UniProtKB/TrEMBL annotation:
GO molecular function: O-methyltransferase activity; S-adenosylmethionine-dependent methyltransferase activity
GO terms for biological process, alphabetical: methylation
One Pfam family linked to the record: Methyltransf_3
SUPFAM superfamilies documented for this protein: S-adenosyl-L-methionine-dependent methyltransferases
Tagged with keyword Methyltransferase: yes
Name of the protein described by the UniProt record: Caffeoyl-CoA O-methyltransferase
Top-level taxon in the UniProt lineage: Bacteria
Length: 220
């Protein structure tokens, strides 16, 4: 099943995809393999971003002239594939994740796309991996799609490591609509973070109704 926004009917989701640049064979095969893994219960079905979100992230990476990017939460590698494709030939993407099994799928597709030399994968606790990086302005773009209760810490840790005008993207910030009626700790963490970011002077902030909610932060 192709991931789609809860805000869209299946028909509208089909129309959105048909009206956007479509994934090539490598990206389509990665989406299909991940969907098959979800069908077999090997991965959570909600972890994959929608194809149109990947296209948006690739376009944004290229439009911003991103040279160095970081991703927190890589899963099977589709979002990283999209970001890496938006980078220049000498650009780089650092991916932080905990799963060797899921990221092994990612590595295969990055290699097939000819992008393995642009992507560095570090396995381990992402909070610790991020803290281990020099607290200097390094990244032009960051994408966060990991433990939701940890988002606030990721944002705080990313701020000194983003270049002036650097952009942070936070995934799942609408929580399938549950931000209006939080059901669990993940929901409540995102509700609190959304409110805090709207008033945070460090960032320009907009919550986009793309897929499951994509918050864009620009470092002032």
């Amino acid at each position: 099943m192709t991931p789609r926004s809860f805000l869209l009917t299946p028909e509208l989701a089909d129309y959105v995809r048909a009206s956007s640049e479509r994934p090539d064979d490598v990206a389509a095969d990665l989406l299909a393999e991940t969907a098959a893994m979800a069908d077999r219960g090997e991965v959570p079905p909600t972890f994959q971003i929608a194809p149109e979100q990947g296209t948006f992230m690739q376009l944004l990476t290229r439009a911003l002239g991103v040279r160095r990017a970081v991703e927190i939460g890589t899963f099977t590698g589709y979002s990283a594939l999209c970001v890496a494709r938006g980078l220049p030939d000498d650009g780089s993407l650092l991916c932080l994740d905990t799963s060797e099994e899921w990221t092994a799928v990612a590595r295969r597709y990055w290699a097939r796309a000819g992008l393995a030399d642009r992507i560095e994968l570090r396995l381990g606790d992402a909070h610790e991996s991020l803290r281990a990086l020099p607290a200097v302005q390094t990244f032009d773009l960051a994408f966060v799609d990991a433990d939701k209760t940890g988002y606030a810490d990721y944002v705080d840790q990313l701020h000194p490591r983003m270049t002036d005008g650097g952009v942070v993207l936070l995934d799942n910030t609408l929580r399938n609509g549950r931000v209006l009626d939080p059901q669990n700790d993940d929901d409540r963490a995102l509700v609190e973070l959304n409110a805090a970011l709207a008033a945070d002077p460090r960032w320009e902030t907009v919550l986009l109704p793309l897929s499951d909610g994509l918050t864009m932060l620009r470092r002032r």
